[in-house]
Design brief:
This protein is 49% helix and 23% strand. Bound molecules: adenosine-5'-diphosphate (ADP). The site of adenosine-5'-diphosphate has 22 residues, from α11 and α13.
């Protein structure tokens, strides 16, 4: 019976104590509960709780006003608690001191002390097991509360870090996005949201993500989309296995590069063009001076010859100026094509007439090859005439003087693509080096060889060709081999 009563009592105490602990939010609540339950067994006068802040730095977190010891007097008892590391009752000169240490990883981190005026010997003996259990139980709760606080603290630290990195990423101009292996978006910074990527950009980003997952590597890409240049880069994040994609609009940088290059080309152009102007001007000046100085003594034939040279050189200068003017008008978009139906072969024949003199001067033969009786296409006949003229003039100018037979020909034929006619200008001239093939269409570009520089030019002819064909939505292609020859082709839609 006695045993049953003891068990009942034990259970009642434990359940009351558990209820108290259930609502405990902080260590002090646990100490309050312990104090409450201890008072059932011991006649405790007053309490005090000390907590460790640093290696030898203790503070009192709670003390009854009637607790008879000052903080400084408690140091030896704290040491005692650290040595014993378990519940103990220590006799004093007057009364007893109950010491309850709380441990973390085997180290004493706080101590509850209770002052008892009477000897607790008997009550301790009777209730030893219950007190032992309560001490053990409250130790666990204190440890859990501490862990809980640490988790909260570290969650707060993490939250702070997250905010810190988010602010950093948001302040970047680059649009950052993070993708998982299902190509689903898991993170974006503000720049990405502002950029609001279009469908085509998203496609590129997703392809890069797939590529990075498959080659497990960083990937970069530069692409022009809707008139803007973008630079993309990916980074594998590892854990978790995700891919970060950065995207930057580099149109301004590209534009700057373009302007710099243009600037350099312009400088070269100025020196080229001065040379082009100087030669005919020097000739005109020299002949005009001769005529002035020996006006009376010149026979008529010589005078005529001199006048002819002056005229030819003036015409040449006029031609140069006209090309420059045409080009600047094209550049300013003042020469929109006036689209109509016209016979391409007729224009080629016209060009053939215009280049007769050049053909003689450079000793080049010319032919038109076509099986078509006519090739009526849609376009601006004047502008296409200029395109053909520039191409044919180059085919003649850049002849190979080492070859005995030099030829230039224009081929007009049905395109492989239905509904179009292709025109090809071919020559057996000096050819264009592979690395220059794309550049010949740039403004003021001339292939840098002595062969080219022995021929007069401005580096504008093919830029004009490209500009005009661009306006016609036609593409010009070039095939060339040094020492063999070159061929330039473009296609126009048939009329009707
Ligand atoms: P240019 O006024 O110098 O002829 P173009 O724009 O017409 O300017 O041509 C640019 C450069 O391309 C030329 O300087 C020359 O080096 C090269 N080129 C053009 N056409 C030919 C060709 N048919 N054969 C060889 N080189 C050519």
């Amino acid at each position: 019976m006695q045993a049953e009563a003891a068990i009942d009592r034990f259970l009642t105490i434990v359940s009351t104590f558990s209820r108290e602990l259930n609502t405990a939010k902080k260590a002090l609540d646990v100490y309050h509960a312990i104090v409450k339950v201890l008072r059932r067994f011991f006649d405790i006068h007053s309490f005090c709780v000390l907590e460790q802040k640093g290696p030898s730095d203790w503070i009192s977190i709670w003390s009854d006003p009637t607790f008879p010891f000052g903080f400084d007097e408690l140091t030896p008892y704290v040491q005692l608690a650290q040595e014993r590391r378990s519940f103990s009752i220590y006799p004093l000169d007057e009364g007893h001191l109950l010491i309850l240490p709380s441990l973390k990883s085997g180290r004493v981190v706080s101590v509850l002390m209770g002052y008892l005026q009477d000897d607790p010997e008997e009550s301790l003996r009777e209730n030893e097991s219950v007190v032992g259990f309560i001490m053990f139980f409250s130790g666990l709760v204190l440890e859990n509360l501490r862990l809980y606080r640490e988790v909260l603290d570290s969650a707060a630290v993490q939250e702070g870090l997250k905010k810190y990195y988010q602010t950093m990423l948001d302040s970047m101009d680059e649009a950052i996005s993070v993708w998982d292996e299902n190509r689903s978006l898991v993170f974006t910074n503000q720049s990405y949201i502002r950029a609001d990527p279009s469908e085509s950009i998203l496609e590129i980003i997703k392809d890069l993500v797939t590529q990075s997952y498959s080659n497990r590597n960083h990937n970069t890409l530069e692409k022009e989309i809707a008139g803007h240049f973008y630079s993309f880069g990916t980074v594998l994040l590892g854990n978790p296995d995700q891919v970060l994609v950065s995207m930057e609009d580099i149109s301004n940088t590209k534009e700057l590069e373009r302007i710099k290059k243009l600037d350099q080309i312009r400088t070269e152009f100025v020196s080229n063009i001065s040379h082009e102007f100087r030669t005919p001007l020097a000739a005109i000046k020299a002949y005009a001076e001769t005529i002035r100085d020996s006006f009376g003594s010149l026979d008529e034939e010589t005078g005529q010859q001199f006048m002819m040279t002056i005229l030819e050189q003036s015409e040449h200068l006029e031609g140069l100026l006209n090309r420059l003017l045409d080009f600047s008008r094209l550049e300013n978009q003042a020469m929109r094509p006036e689209i109509e139906d016209f016979d391409l072969i007729e224009q080629v024949r016209d060009v053939e007439q215009r280049v007769q003199k050049m053909l003689q001067t450079y000793a080049v033969s010319f032919s038109i090859e076509t099986k078509l009786p006519e090739a009526v296409v849609r376009g601006d006949p004047k502008q296409i005439n200029q395109v053909v003229f520039n191409l044919v003039a180059n085919a003649i100018k850049y002849r190979d003087t080492k070859k005995l037979e030099r030829w230039a020909k224009v081929i007009v034929e049905e395109s492989e693509e239905e509904g179009k006619v292709t025109l090809t200008v071919e020559d057996n001239g000096i050819g264009i080096p592979e690395e220059s093939a794309d550049k010949v269409f740039e403004k003021f570009y001339r292939v840098d060889t002595s062969l080219t520089y022995s021929v007069e030019g401005t580096g504008l002819g093919l830029a004009v060709v490209k500009e005009i064909l661009d306006m016609h939505r036609a593409v010009i292609t070039v095939k060339s081999q040094i020492g063999i020859g070159s061929s330039f082709s473009f296609s126009l839609p048939k009329a009707g």
